[in-house]
């Protein structure tokens, strides 16, 4: 099988690493990729948001499957463009990706499918926002309707700050905000593969979204993750498939907008039961780095079954009896103003730590020197017989990496009680 992976992050590097290890894969390409991905796949300089260009590249390369990593190309219709030239694509259509691209649409689908989620009001005026904030009370949760790279959500006790964020979202063209009930409890990410009919869950993971230790500081794209979750209820995955993923997939099919790819279900385990916090239309970053590290079934077969509508015939997935932990190394200033160009050293030494691998995100090669070129720079993954061992491997590897001004959380998977 010849495969083209679209994207530039550590999530895509994890996908490429797993695909490279699959004997079924004869050729592996990526666009635009990054220097780490370039060690495992042939890179092509194509704009990932340009569906026509991606489809033309896929045709020229003669690939059997295109795998779209990030949400922006999906919302831009890249999967539609690839399918239109007769090539199988892992990732939902532009219309179906609205499950992530519009929080108001996602809430509407959840309501129709009786999926348990936070109560919410979709607002288009300042007055509606003010009423909704009063109705729910503090802590206030205010979300921009459209894609915002993890930065569109404000959770705060400060009424003025909640209103200010809502006003900023409303000021944008077509601005809409979702004000919702605060959900209290541990968060879980569960990736559910689907071909539009059958749903196959992967292993649950937990993401650490705040920038600083102790869940302090601003929200980020994700600073670390681990899997499995030894504290999660044993029936959680079955419950989420039955009450969330399958009804959502069925409702999308009923609307004539079949969803295929991965439905990322973000959940909170509240005292009143499991609630959906968000849907995404793609794999999560950094959770993918730990989930794929544990998946024993060769990945190409799985992604191909999703893309070709044959997931129902896939044998049950096999998992390694191991844990995985990833810690993100972020550039100076992340998630605010990020400094580019600092040199990165020690990656090879880090990969020599048993059980460790270093996945690239915001890296670039400048005159042969590996430098930071984005907010989240590296995703350092450790594997081991349990979470503590995996964690030790990840942090031992990080010790060997030097990136001036960088920061990372020191408490990823430190307390694994949820
Ligand atoms: P979202 O973009 O919807 O995934 O939200 C990003 C993060 O904001 C979530 O992972 C939560 O940590 C937090 N969040 C979102 N919605 C809520 C909510 N209703 N209650 C509490 N926290 C929330
Ligand atoms: N880990 C959060 C996300 O991928 O949205």
Task: Throw out a few tags for this protein.
418 residues, alpha+beta, Rossmann fold, Dna Ligase, domain 1, D-amino Acid Aminotransferase, Chain A, domain 1, five-stranded parallel sheet, binds adenosine monophosphate, binds glycine
Q: Your description of this structure?
A:
The chain has 14 helices and 22 strands. It has 418 residues and is of the alpha+beta class. The protein has a five-stranded parallel β-sheet with strand order 3-2-1-4-5, with helices on both faces. A five-stranded antiparallel β-sheet has the order 12-15-18-22-19. Strand 13 and strand 14 form a beta hairpin. Helix 3 packs across helix 5. The site of adenosine monophosphate has 15 residues, from strand 7, strand 8 and strand 17.
Tell me roughly what share of residues is in helical segments: 25-40%
Which band does the percent of strand residues land in? 25-35%
Helix segment tally: 14
Based on CA inertia axes, which overall geometry fits? globular
Kindly report the average pLDDT value: 95
CATH domain class name of the largest domain: Alpha Beta
Radius of gyration: 20 Å
Major β-sheet annotation: 5 strands, parallel
The CATH superfamily of the largest domain appears as: ATP-grasp fold, B domain
> Which ligands accompany this protein?
adenosine monophosphate, glycine
What is the CATH topology classification name of the largest domain?
D-amino Acid Aminotransferase, Chain A, domain 1
Count of β-strands? 22
The secondary structure category is alpha+beta
End-to-end distance, in Å? 40 Å
Q: Which architecture of the largest domain would the CATH scheme give at its second level?
A: 2-Layer Sandwich
